[in-house]
Amino acid sequence: MKVLVSYDGSEGAKEALKFALSCKCNVNNYTIVYVIPTIVGISASFDSYVPASVYEGQDKTADEILNRAKKELEDAGVKYELIKVNSNGEEIAKMILDTAKDRKVDLIVTGTRKLHGFSKLILGSVSSGLIAHSDIPVTVVPPKK
After folding, report:
1. What number of helices (H) and strands (E) belong to the chain?
2. How far is CA 20 from the centre of its chain?
3. pLDDT tens-digit profile of 81-90?
4. Domain count across the chain
5. pLDDT, tens digit (0-9, with 9 covering 90-100), for 91-107
6. What is the longest distance spanned by two Cα atoms in the chain?
């Protein structure tokens, strides 16, 4: 079985990776994906300049997050692939689903931040988007209390 873990370094993502690794006797390969979010301009009415250093910072952050997952994967002794994807204005859930389809995974494992109300409305919910649009089974793992 091939498993994709959506990983952003959050507590929910850490728990999702732990859960996925607890199933390692049934898993042949892990794909760990981090989606670099789009930088939103201040106003839609005019173009804004975003310095290259901001994008470099995002790329560095993505590498740091994936390196934390890499340590867990190496400690578990499993076969894995680390992927960072730029969202390029697309929804993060869509980018994860596209990656899962490209890699022909059998299961998507993701964490949740348990957002409610206004926070969920503004920030969105990647796990909800995955569940709503996936043809691949999705397991959502909650963070520890």
Report:
1. 5, 5
2. 14
3. 999 999 988 9
4. 1
5. 999 999 999 999 999 99
6. 53
pLDDT tens column, 4-16: 999 999 999 999 9
- Domain CATH for 36: 3.40.50.620
Q: Are 12 and 111 in contact (CB under 8 A)?
A: yes
Contact 28, 79 (CB under 8 A): yes
- Residues spanned by the domain of 117: 2-141
pLDDT in tens, 33-51: 999 987 655 445 555 655 6
d(CA 40, CA 5): 26
* DSSP 8-state secondary structure symbol assigned to residue 44: T
SS3 139: strand
Q: How far is CA 122 from CA 11, 88, 136, in A?
A: 20, 19, 26
What DSSP designation does 142 have?
P
